[in-house]
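Hi C.,

You asked whether I'd gotten around to modeling the 387-residue construct. I have! Everything is below, sequence then structure, no commentary in between.
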Amino acid sequence: MTDPTQDPYATYAAMRSTCPVQAVSAGSGGRTSYLVTGYAEAREVLADARLSKDTAAFFAGKGSPRRLHPAVAHTMLATDPPEHTRLRKLVTKAFTTGAVTQLRPFITRVTDELLDQWTAGEPFDLVAGLAVPLPVIVICELLGVPQADRSEVRRWSKELFAAGQPDVIDAASHSLADYMTSLIAAKRGNPGTSLLDQLISARDGEDRLSEEELVSLAVLLLVAGHETTTNFLGNALLALLQHPAELRRLQQNPAEVSFALDELLRFDSPVSTATFRYTTEPITLGGTDIPVGAPVLIALGAANRDPERFPAPDSLELDRNAAAHLGFGHGIHRCVGAPLAKAEAEIALRALLTRYPEIRLAVPPARLKWRHTRLMRGLTSLPVTLG
């Protein structure tokens, strides 16, 4: 039987062919959730104001043994307008195309420094050597996290996604929140120009940002700012290595990497399932009636392989116009850091393909290990030979 973490797409296709929206049992309590696997239905429900992301309201009074730090449990991702609108406005300007353009020389320099540590002809783990450190260094630089603290911050962030280990996740949430609280205090005593310094100014100024919201935003930006990009880089390179003709095409025409990013995101999305939502009133979606108060799970990876929207969806076709993919979500909660993620991926892939024209997998694809987490889809390692 195929391990669903290795290739979930056949399972998604089977479910979608039966019905694009299905009731599924979730959790030890047997609560019924609704899983969305169709593209049209996913896009519709991602923008539907009748679904709430307010997890605090949903779980109020239900009781839980979990002890997530409130700054992690109730981030901007777990709010609705108008709170979400206010918080998102504070960070959007840091991730505009113009702002990211200013970061490109730094991203390029870091990429080159990481690649300079590689030895051609020897097996190398692309995840550990590039896909993990590059986004961590970039987001830490943007936020103003000191270099000495970055390895610890990365470890806590990774532990937040330790599926099946609630104690590890909860402990990591407290470590990260406590660290950010300390860093904010240090920056107040010695202000700088980083994004975190700008958010501190908003907290201490006129923009109505509470201390709890400040810590929560800092943790969210730190974690979301590199976990998804790490998976994006690993998944994209693996897809190219398994499609030699497409790999050669980009090697011969590196300028096409930028256009290819959307198809790579569609083909193997780094975020497998959108974050938590629930219905605030009964809705009908894809011919399925969903009652009020029901969690709705949106399988972004499944939607991006829907043949109704993307013909021959299991084929990687770099000349496909895949800009409508849902890899970054859709609607008011679409990933605010998408321009930064795409810039990092473009620079890293272009450098890899230019430097190492003979790059290839160092192990059979079946031996690759995937992270066991519902939210993210990414490799634990990607051994390659650099040629």
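If it helps when you're writing up: The mean pLDDT is 89.

Thanks,
B.
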